[in-house]
Amino acid sequence: MQLPPRIALVELLLAAAAVVTSACNIPTTSLSSNITGGFGILIQNPAYPVIHDRYMNLAVAGGGDKHLFLSPVGDYAFDLDLNTGFLEQDIIHAVIDGEYSEIDNTTKMFMTERGDPKAIFTPVYGCNPDNVTETQIQLAFATREESPVGGSICVRVASGNRGYEFRYSPPENPVLLSTPPSNLPSPTSTSTTSLPTATPTAPPTIPPTWTFLGCQTEATSTRALSSNTYANDSMTLESCADFCAGYTYFGTEYARECYCGDVFEEGSVEAAAVDCSFACAGDAGELCGAGNRLSVYSSS
Ligand SMILES: *[C@@H]1O[C@H](CO)[C@@H](O)[C@H](O)[C@H]1NC(C)=O
Ligand SMILES: *[C@@H]1O[C@H](CO)[C@@H](O)[C@H](O)[C@H]1NC(C)=O
Ligand SMILES: *[C@@H]1O[C@H](CO)[C@@H](O)[C@H](O)[C@H]1NC(C)=O
Ligand SMILES: *[C@@H]1O[C@H](CO)[C@@H](O)[C@H](O)[C@H]1NC(C)=O
């Protein structure tokens, strides 16, 4: 099984830019402004661990629109395309319009079928900030239609306990060039607990032979736990533990997937515990990983 393709959007949060040492091999060829076949967007800015390595998720809004949030809020989208620089999912595309905010001079980015000014991106090669020897494809924000060239896409805390939302900051935004206003939550004071997460209401009743190991990423080119798997909507930690009896590890992912194995395949690494935030499909009081994150238990 292949992991979905991903593209990194190296992001800005308010005024701070990521500082990345370039140590990878950047091809001299340019990339096409068309990328088809489906990809997801990983947000990267190691300077802000709370947003680093989260996906840009879509959430259904009114009128066929979808709003954009950082994972785990919203639905994972690994079916995005870039069409002459426009970011598309099926018949909707990314636009920048509405909900202008005086406090930071930014405007909302969301996805719609309608004719609002589009966001235009340019794919470029960059070095993965998590592994500076690794080349990756990044989406550089080029401009908003009908606006001066430039500007940036940022994320900031969303209203209504919905994690983080995506905003457009115009070029030379005087608000962003100065210190962020003190009445905005600063990135460092933004606690990860403001992200909606499922809180277990009762301790899991999995057999005591299993102990919780932590939250783990998928492997690079296969599943982290690749010996056996099933998925359905009655997933609980108990049913996955039963299914994986005899293996050293079991892990639940994306609320409804169960994986078993005796080793972690290459590339699977420990992730922040807060990443594993999806309630299990069959028991809302238990946590079953997230997108690309496994809640892992060990029998040894
Ligand atoms: C991108 O795709 C569009 C059609 O969706 C096509 O008109 C355009 O020529 C393509 N551009 C490149 C650079 O391939
Ligand atoms: C970093 O990337 C290089 C090049 O893709 C790869 O060979 C290496 O295994 C990676 N290191 C880690 C720790 O993932
Ligand atoms: C917003 O940014 C633009 C620069 O792109 C600037 O002309 C304008 O004055 C700013 N508005 C506020 C309220 O800061
Ligand atoms: C879910 O899968 C497990 C393991 O294969 C099976 O025992 C259970 O009956 C399934 N439940 C549903 C509702 O399909």
From TrEMBL:
Bias (Low complexity) = 176-200
Going by the UniProt record, its keywords in alphabetical order are: Repeat, Signal
* The WSC domain, residue ranges: 209-300
Entry annotated with the keyword Signal: yes
Q: Does the keyword Cell membrane apply?
A: no
Among Pfam families, the record links this protein to: DUF7909, WSC
- Which InterPro entries does this entry report, sorted A to Z? DUF7909, Sialate-O-sulfotransferase, WSC_carb-bd
List the residue ranges of the region (Disordered). Answer: 171-203
Segment forming the signal sequence: 1-23
By its UniProt entry, which PROSITE patterns does this protein fall under? PROKAR_LIPOPROTEIN (PS51257), WSC (PS51212)
- Protein's name in the database: WSC domain-containing protein
Species annotation: Lachnellula hyalina
Taxonomic placement: Eukaryota, Fungi, Dikarya, Ascomycota, Pezizomycotina
